[in-house]
Amino acid sequence: MTAQDPETKRTVVPPRSGLLHIVDAAGYSLAGFKRLWAETAARLEITAAAIVTVAFVWRGAAAWHWGVMLVLFSLVLVVEALNTAIEVLTDGISPHWSQMAKDAKDLGSLAVGLMLVVSGAFAGLVIVGVL
Which of 36, 63, 79, 104 is the most exposed place for a label (fewest CB within 10 A)? Predict the structure, then answer.
């Protein structure tokens, strides 16, 4: 039996409490980051953040520019992670093509696209000196 086999027996481990719960949560977050890193889009977004960082240093961006950009790029990765989760769940629940699955994936993609437009517009305005 493989891990994908529905007949695979799994046991539910009750959550630990106290500091061990925080340790477990950190491990889950790290696993999530590793999964997100497997997405080409996330790697491209992190690369874009590095390029914007160099451009901000070159431009001498103000502290508030850095703060806003940090929040925007963090939100890009948050939305990308949620979009990836939607895609993974949709593929698992609806392995065959369906309009509902397509709509779910398209809406997740739209959310990422909107965050990229807002982040890119802000970075561009700072780099060209409008802000």
Answer: 63
Instruction: Convert the pLDDT of each residue in 38-73 to its tens digit.
Output: 999 999 999 999 999 999 999 999 999 999 999 999
CB atoms within 10 A of CB 24: 13
For the question of residue 80 being annotated catalytic, the response is yes
Residue 82 contacts residue 108 (beta carbons within 8 Å): yes
Alpha carbons 15 and 25: distance in angstroms, whole number: 10
8-19 as b/e: b if 16+ CB within 10 A = eeeeeeeeeeee
Whether the model clears a pTM of 0.70, i.e. scores above it, the answer is yes
Q: Say which of 7, 39, 45, 80 is annotated catalytic.
A: 80
H or E segment and range at residue 77:
helix 63-93
- Of 89, 81, 91, 90, give the one whose Cα is nearest residue 31: 81
